[in-house]
Amino acid sequence: MHFFLIQTIFSIFGVVLNVILIFMVFFKLSSNSACCSAVIIVKAVVDILIAAVAGLLLERILSTGDSVIIIFTGLCFSHFSCFTGHIFLNSFHQFNLIWMVASYLFRHCILYRKSPTPKIVGFSVVTISLPLLIHNIIWINLFTENTSFTAPKIFSKPGDLVLAGWVIQVSSEVVLASLGVSGLLVLGFYFVVRSSLMGFLRRNLARLSKRSFIYNSRLLKTIHLQSLIPIFISSGTFIFFSMHYYILDPIQVQFLPILLYTISTVISPISYILFLPPDGNLCFGVSKNLKSKMNAIESVTQTVTNNGVHDVSVF
């Protein structure tokens, strides 16, 4: 019962916080940040879908070593609809991780080349979505061959909708393994973009406008906090495979994987709500420490005669 309450709370928070974030982007963020606005909105919409579907399904996925079992206690009324929701939920998580890598690449283009247009962002969404959609359709079609819909009584109660069988086992192993690998890759990209951004700030300290310095300083904090997303996803995957290979007791940890996945939906909006630049920030203005750094940059910039002021957008 406590799990269902916590799961529902995080699902509601995930929806509400991402709606607030979309409001901030539309009405608070600077109008010349079209690329970053598009990137943030795409991530927020997918987070809303994840939180909403997770809250409706209230699923938990576990492994006894011999079989993989998915148990639903939410608002799904047939095995087919539950499996379809489960497959799309995992594909949304996969999209999020790939989208984080794409946003890092966009960040690199903004720093060293030029800002991608919203059309490029839209094309990236389609390019990422199509393979995931095809992957979902394949598993959903295979589900008709699944014949097992029972679970040990220790894991479920009367009224729960249960999925098991070879399709459930193979699809879960493939999808969760890809999530775990993607999470580790995103962490690797995080360290690269963090190093790139810090190097950019050091090399261009005298050329940055005050607005650009604020943006990029806040971006570093945002990236730091968002690194928790792949950590949570990879941790959930690790727990699942630890159950599968008898390292962890499924009775004790069966609720953790999906809970960690759901918590990941609130990290991105929290990071942006806290650390968006002052012209889009709803919580904080410019700190005294940041103001002093800005004044130092301004004085340095005034002494430089041959360097222009470089303005960079952020997401």
UniProtKB/TrEMBL annotation:
Domain of life the protein comes from: Eukaryota
Transmembrane segments: 6-27, 34-57, 69-89, 120-143, 163-193, 228-248, 254-275
Membrane topology: Multi-pass membrane protein
InterPro entries: 7TM_GPCR_serpentine_rcpt_Srd (IPR019421), Nematode_rcpt-like_delta (IPR050920)
Subcellular localization(s) per the UniProt record: Membrane
One cellular-component annotation, GO: membrane
Keyword Nucleotide-binding attached: no
Tagged with keyword Membrane: yes
Similarity section: Belongs to the nematode receptor-like protein srd family.
Protein name, per record: Protein CBG13757
Native source organism of the sequence: Caenorhabditis briggsae
